[in-house]
Amino acid sequence: MARVCEICGKKTIFGRNVSHAHNVTSRRYLPNLQKIRVRIEGGGTRRARVCTRCLRSRSVVKAVG
């Protein structure tokens, strides 16, 4: 399963580590995904991988209880 937010589609991006001696290696920036129970339109709940930005901006409603 890919590391992708199911709401906004945020995913892993790639960059470079650059040392003081300018040795360059590849690295990954991973999104902060949380596996939470989400309330859906039909009145039910399901588990989803959601980034913390979507949780904070209220793009998704957590299922309580």
Please give a structural write-up.
The chain is mainly β. The protein contains 1 helix and 4 strands, in the order E-E-E-E-H. Strand 3 (33-39) and strand 4 (45-51) form a beta hairpin. The longest helix is centred in the C-terminal third of the chain and has 5 residues, at 52-56. The protein is elongated and about 55 Å long. The model has no long low-confidence stretch (mean pLDDT 93).
Order of helices and strands: EEEEH
Task: Indicate the structural class.
Answer: mainly beta
The first-to-last residue Cα distance is 27 Å
User: What percentage of the residues does DSSP assign to strands (E)?
Assistant: 35-45%
Helix content: under 10%
The global form is: elongated
Count of DSSP helices? 1
Biggest beta-sheet profile = 2 strands, antiparallel
Please tally the β strands and state the result: 4
Question: What would the average pLDDT be, to the nearest integer?
Answer: 93
Strand neighbour order, sheet with most strands: 1-2
Uncertain residue segments: none
Rg is: 16 Å
Set out the fold topology.
Layout: E1 13-18, E2 24-29, E3 33-39, E4 45-51, H1 52-56
Antiparallel strand pairs: 1-2, 3-4
Defining key terms:
single chain; 65 residues; mainly beta; two-stranded antiparallel ribbon; two-stranded antiparallel sheet; 4 strands; 8% helix
Outline:
This protein is mostly beta strands and 65 residues long.
